[in-house]
Specification:
heterodimer, A: about 55 residues, mainly alpha, 2 helices, about 0% strand, elongated, B: about 200 residues, alpha+beta, five-stranded mixed beta sheet, four-stranded mixed beta sheet, 9 helices, 9 strands, about 20% strand
């Protein structure tokens, strides 16, 4: 059996929180982009994401 | 984003996606049958451009009688919607809706996306139906839960996806929100700390 890694739950929680904060920062900039972009342009890009299965 | 926001309605013209078409088609039938409703949860952030999709659209429908429900069921069937939870309207009404469970409608022959249809379960559900915000989407009137409730309620639900939805909606609408109403819901849902941590 391979040597198994040590699992540090606090370390994982911290990484999860950091990833989440990065996504929130991205959302902030994405919301800014949508606010400052014409409906025709953002909704065309958005449609391709929503319709993707 | 060209968004025309007033106290009574939000006007939005955009390229419609598959979920928008489903909502417009379904709510037209509700309107034609004088059935009051409100769209809640994830679709609201998607409607305004959040870059994610969803398998279902949550809908709270003001309680109607079994007879009214049968008429609505018939109208939905005639317009190409089928209930994917049960094929018996009496069963749908008695064993699901009246027992606080949801039923789902999809376009015939499909399973997703679908409309999750339920009667109000809480006072907040009833409030959202009563004070729904009208959105005129490419000329079609639909009704959504007020953003002042959606943001705190998404924080209350609390998953990462929910908090992201709350942040996105708040960022888009913060200049136009009724701050007192937002503060009321934040305080009473006990989400002021989360709001300050992630959204402010």
């Amino acid at each position: 059996m391979n040597r198994l890694p040590k699992i540090d739950i606090d370390e994982l929680r911290k990484a999860k929180e950091e990833n989440f904060k990065e996504r929130l920062e991205f959302l902030d900039s994405y919301a800014n982009w949508v606010k400052n972009t014409s409906n025709a342009k953002w909704s065309s890009a958005h449609k391709s994401i929503v319709n993707r299965k | 984003m060209e968004l025309d926001v007033s106290r009574r309605r939000i006007k939005l013209d955009k390229e419609l996606n598959e979920l928008d078409h489903l909502v417009i088609d379904f709510t037209k039938i509700l309107n034609a049958n004088k059935t009051d409703y409100v769209l809640v949860s994830g679709y609201i952030s998607i409607l305004f451009g959040r870059s994610r999709s969803s398998e279902d659209i949550d809908l709270v429908v003001k309680k109607i009688s079994r007879k009214q429900f049968s008429i609505l069921w018939q109208a939905l069937s005639e317009k190409g919607f089928e209930c994917i939870t049960t094929d018996d309207p009496k069963n749908a009404y008695d064993r699901y809706l009246m027992k606080r469970s949801a039923i789902r409608f999809a376009k015939e022959g499909t399973f997703i996306p679908n409309m999750e249809f339920k009667f109000p379960k809480t006072e907040l559900d009833k409030w959202a139906v009563a004070y729904a915000k009208k959105v005129v989407l490419n000329g079609n009137a639909i009704k959504i839960s007020p953003i002042e409730l959606q943001v705190p309620f998404k924080l209350f639900l609390g998953s990462e996806k929910d908090i992201e939805d709350a942040k996105y909606l708040y960022k888009l609408f913060k200049e136009t929100l009724d701050k007192r109403l937002l503060a009321y819901f934040l305080e009473n849902l006990d989400k002021e700390d989360k709001f300050n941590k992630y959204l402010a």
